[in-house]
Amino acid sequence: MSSGFSAVLLSLALGAGSTGEDSWLDLDRELARLESAPGASDGVSWGALLRAFYLFSGEESSGGNADTSGFAFEDVDLYFAFDAAEFGWRVSADAESGSPVLQDAHAYWRHAPWFVLTFGQFKPRVVRSGSIAPEQLLFRERTFLGAVFDVWDDGVELGGHYDQFDYWLALTDAENGHESDHFWSLRGEWALYDVAFADLEGAREAPNHLRVLLGGLLFDDVALSASDGGGFGFDLALTFGPYAFHGEWARLDESFLRSVDVFAGAPLVVGDGQPRSATLSRRIGADGEAALRLQKADDADDTSSLGLCWNWARAPGSGRWIVDLAFIEGDGRDDTLFSIGLNVGTSGLDRPFAGATPR
Fold first, then answer.
1. Would you call 117 exposed, middle or buried from its count of C-beta atoms within 10 A (0-12, 13-18, 19+)?
2. Helix 2-16 and helix 22-35: axis angle, to 10°?
3. Rounded to two decimals, what is the model's pTM?
4. Cβ atoms of 150 and 141 closer than 8 Å
5. What is the pLDDT of residues 198-252, one digit of tens each?
6. Hey, where are the domains in the chain?
7. Is 91:100 a contact under the CB 8 Å cutoff?
């Protein structure tokens, strides 16, 4: 994967040094070839996703060391999946750290649209921002809450779709493995206007009418505490023509604490508070989008963030470019974090219950 990334960087350098459009067009064609890598045959699909970024962070976001900069992979994913009318399976792995790490390894049985049972290793759907496919993110990183629940675990999940409603009820091993205390979560989504829309951030491909999706969540990590290791909350996603909005809030109990890496190596401990975020974006041009994001972790350091981003594709199927600027403040942080990167390929993740129905 590193050699492929080097080839992309070399192509960028050639394109930047050209006085015409030929080198950029050649790069677009090469990215389109990589984007078209996913395939399908007799219900089996496969594909890969590469998200590579150049990062610059100051002293605080680098953990108190000197200013840091360099290239990093956010995702180097490969997946295989099968979907039939009544059952399917998915296996995926991420090699961003150099060694493959198993993510999805589950099978599901679709008895009816409102009754889909999943067994194996999967990511419980707790907040919408945590379950959006990586290539569908507007910013380099998920929201604070999204990163908290961007976790795969072994277990079982029951979910389904009925009319304007979707639900997910999951029970997983949590941090104590096969011991008796587990993590459970319940999530419901209600399409107030129009129908439930795809899991993506922003207004890409949004119609020129209002769509509103309201979600509620409840969870408890009994592995952490029998009484105060859970929480509850809600999120709201809407699009209206070129505009999109996403807001989320949760109340996390005092024993629920999770460390997430959203600041290029400096951990953020989220829990025992009320983290929230609001994201507003607007499509600009044929395939560009600008976004503003306000976040508050409500952690021990009172960390907050103002994020700005611009992402675009030079041509359909040519990969998406992301420029991301975050201004971070808190008792232990006061810094600016800059990122520029490229998404190529797909993780093969779609909105649940949007596929085939039983024969």
1. middle
2. 160
3. 0.85
4. no
5. 999 999 889 999 999 999 999 999 877 666 789 999 999 999 999 999 999 999 9
6. 37-345
7. no
